[in-house]
Amino acid sequence: MRNKWLRQGFRKERTRGRLAERPLGRPRLSVHRSLRYLFAQVIDDAQGRTVAAVSSACKEVRERVKSGKSVSAAKAVGEMIAKKAVAAGVKKVAFDRGALQYHGRVKTLADAARSAGLEF
Predict the structure, then answer these.
(1) Domains in the chain: how many in total?
(2) What does residue 3 show for φ and ψ, rounded to 5 degrees?
(3) pTM of the shown model
């Protein structure tokens, strides 16, 4: 088990390092996927604050979907995080998937956020 967590840590640091290399000056859209829920945050690292945050455990998302770990929940979270970020004045973000593959729920969240108005 130790080796699995070490490899995951390396993948996460590699992704975050690539984001830090780019002189974009953009907030990052960070995605975390647990076994039950999906979490998304728009984080402004320059100021050290969270601009917007949504999870599939939120009341608004739970009313729209049956399960918090489904692809439909990922789509709802992507749409809501984009709406909250645009309302806070953020249009362009850098997508931070952490150690997760760009596949399934993570890809669905990203596509929904793009279609709702975020650029990355």
Answers:
(1) 1
(2) -65, -35
(3) 0.86
